[in-house]
Design brief:
This protein is an alpha+beta fold and 207 residues long. The chain is 48% helix and 22% strand. The protein has a 3-stranded mixed β-sheet with strand order 1-3-2. Helix 4 runs antiparallel to helix 5. 23% of the residues are buried.
Length: 207
Amino acid sequence: MFSRLALIRPKEMLSRIVQALFCLTLWAFILPAGSAQARPSITVKHSYYNVFGRTASELRDQMKKSPLGSQSKIWGVAKTKWQVTWRYGFRQDSGGYHLNHVATSVQIIFLMPRWINSAEGTPDLRGRWQNFLKALQKHENGHKDHGVDAAQEIETKLSGLRTMTSCSEVDRAVNSTADSIIQKYQRRDFYYDILTLHGILQGAFLL
């Protein structure tokens, strides 16, 4: 035992110690051994910005003046933010480091308009507003689906990663793979809004 250690050069020994500490650090934050691969955990929250008006025209003007209305040349009156996080475990044997126990979670936040003086509107306008909100939510659900799909693809791709030679290689491969998938679905969000005119072509407009 001691004779074998004596053959290890100081720099090589330091490298091994650093790698071991890195692995221990990873294990402190990843899933415990023996846990099953999980389906994406999804959390959905709703937030609102207020609009006032007694006519459809007044309500449209209010939404155009909202922070969302000024963010895009194409008029958008709602927004969906999604964020995917991932965790993983691995096991080591003589063949290397094998990734397992992958789990993802998705946080979805909807930002929608809220008509706060709706009681002052006509029954017809209130009905049209409700139809508008339903179509708008349907559009925003498309963005939500992109976040969920991204999480599912991350789980699938990470679970299929090849065997690697070190903890640092595992960490780089995991984050590189997941980040590229996130970017892919962010692009889908972008083109989805263009193709639907932020939901207008899906009925999300107030006449």
